[in-house]
Write a structure and sequence with these properties.
Elements lengths: L16 H10 L46 H5 L2 H15 L3 E6 L4 H4 L4 E3 L1 H9 L6 E5 L2 H10 L5 E3 L8 H4 L3 H15 L11 E8 L4 H9 L3 E3 L4 H9 L2 E7 L2 H10 L9 E2 L10 H6 L2 E4 L11 H10 L4 E4 L5 H6 L2 E2 L2 H9 L6 E5 L2 H10 L4 E4 L15 H12 L11 H16 L15
Helix pairs in contact: 3-17, 5-6, 9-18
Bound molecules: iron/sulfur cluster.
Iron/sulfur cluster (SF4) binds next to helix 7.
Length: 449
């Protein structure tokens, strides 16, 4: 198996956010977490509605969100070393029958078992390289497993080790709300399929990869496209070649930061609040709009602030500040660079001189990058240890459980997208794959100083 497991590189520093949280809660080190419940087992929260402790703990979870059934006691009570050994043994037994994918934001204790580590789209593509694997175990969140299911062969089982690992941002664009929004926009713009004198339809829907399969299916049915944080500009250009405006969901910040960098004025980017009639806008504003931004955000990236950047610059003269484009616009504007997780990783790898980096993205990735690049000083802009709530729910206990179940011939926690959603969802993904940036342009999504 051609693994690209970046966790296989030497780790001179403990990259485990879990260890940091345990040490903080035990009082053996100074620091703070966003909630001491992080030190508990994720199974303590599986039967309760909510995202669990971490960055999204204050977000409202939709009714009917998937819940995880009880994890067998043996996995809840096993220690870290035992789980580590059991996961390795199960993987050894399964061999090429299984491929394990680990998202950049996943905890170290899980990522070390991944055959591939990457962002959601890189991982879905990695799964494509293993058409003969019977099972794809996706150590990420729900929408990522759905995307892998869209792209994998029907016989392959995509498994999410903890069904409660959703994504608060993806949940902010509910299919019923999006359908209603589309109807209201049709009241303003008329026939949504009619082309004007320039050959443009009124609106092209664009969804961030971080959205449910239902939303990707909606976009596919309405001539739209999916984007990632790596190709958002290219995708918006694709959309503006076909439509007068873009409806962008679920992340307002990625939409705003990308469109602003392309020269779209802020006053032509109204927000669509699904709880208000016409999104809280009026007909004139919508008529003048170039990008209609859905009222969604990532609770991890919303934590970063201009004050944190000012502090980093004051305490570390010459610091290079790189943030993810899911951060608010003011934060992107105050940073030196903005780009996807892959951009951040490559920027650090490409630095030839010892450099101080202040990074605005999920703490697990930042801590792992710091461990892998001891020649640089790398720290998270947010000093509070607060991981993505839902990624954090994939504890090694769940990974051991799903792998040992496969060894026993049982597929648990399979994620399957219904065919009527999968077909248009795949179409929206294929449009994205076909959209290419102009030759020579390296996409950073936001700004580069
Ligand atoms: S980091 Fe944000 S967008 Fe990513 S899974 Fe967590 S809540 Fe969702």
């Amino acid at each position: 198996m051609s693994a690209v497991n970046i966790a296989l590189q030497p780790r001179p520093v403990d990259a485990s956010v879990d260890h940091a949280i345990q040490a903080i809660v035990a009082g053996s080190t100074t620091g703070e977490t966003c909630n001491t419940d992080l030190a508990a087992g994720p199974w303590d929260f599986d039967t309760r509605p909510g995202y669990g402790p971490g960055s999204s703990m204050g977000d409202v979870i939709p009714t009917g969100s998937p819940r995880q059934g009880e994890l067998p006691r043996e996995y809840r009570e096993a220690g870290e070393d035992e789980l580590d050994a059991r996961i390795r043994a199960a993987k050894q037994t399964l061999g090429e029958r299984v491929v394990v994918l680990g998202h950049f934001y996943q905890r170290e204790e899980v990522v070390r078992h991944a055959d591939y580590v990457g962002d959601s789209f890189q991982l879905a593509n990695a799964a494509l390289e293993h058409p003969d694997a019977e099972a794809i175990v996706f150590c990420g969140v729900h929408f990522m497993a759905e995307t892998a299911d869209l792209l994998s062969r029907p016989e392959q089982a995509v498994i999410l080790p903890n069904l409660a690992a959703g994504c608060s941002m993806a949940d902010m664009a509910d299919i019923d709300q999006v359908e209603e929004c589309w109807e209201q926009l049709a009241d303003v713009y008329g026939d949504m399929d009619a082309k004007d004198a320039d050959g443009l339809v009124p609106v092209i829907p664009v969804t961030y990869m971080n959205s449910s399969a239902d939303i990707k299916g909606f976009v596919g049915r309405h001539g739209g496209i999916v984007c990632t944080s790596s190709n958002a500009r290219t995708v918006l250009e694709w959309a503006f070649e076909r439509g007068r405006r873009v409806l962008f969901f679920p992340d307002q910040h990625l939409g705003r930061n990308t469109a602003k960098a392309m020269g779209v004025p802020l006053e032509q980017m109204p927000m669509w609040n699904p709880r208000k009639p016409f999104g809280g806008s009026d007909a004139d504003t919508l008529d003048d709009a170039r990008v209609i931004l859905w009222h969604g955000f990532c609770s991890v990236h919303r934590r970063f602030s201009v004050e944190q950047i000012d502090k980093a610059r004051a305490e570390h003269p010459g610091v290079r500040v790189i943030v993810h484009p899911e951060c608010p616009m003011e934060v992107v504007d105050a940073a030196d660079e903005a780009g996807s997780t892959d951009y951040i990783r490559k920027a650090i790898e490409g630095a030839t001189e010892p450099t101080t980096f202040a990074i605005g993205t999920e703490v697990n990735l930042v801590q792992r990058l710091a461990a892998q690049h001891p020649q640089h000083e790398i720290f998270c802009l947010d000093p509070v240890v607060c991981p993505c709530s839902t990624m954090y729910r994939i504890h090694p206990g769940y990974l051991a459980w799903v792998l040992e179940s496969l060894v026993a011939g049982e597929v648990v926690n399979r994620i399957e997208v219904p065919a009527d959603v999968a077909e248009p969802g795949r179409l929206a993904l294929e449009r994205m794959l076909a959209a290419k940036p102009p030759a020579g342009r390296v996409e950073t999504t936001g700004k580069r100083a």
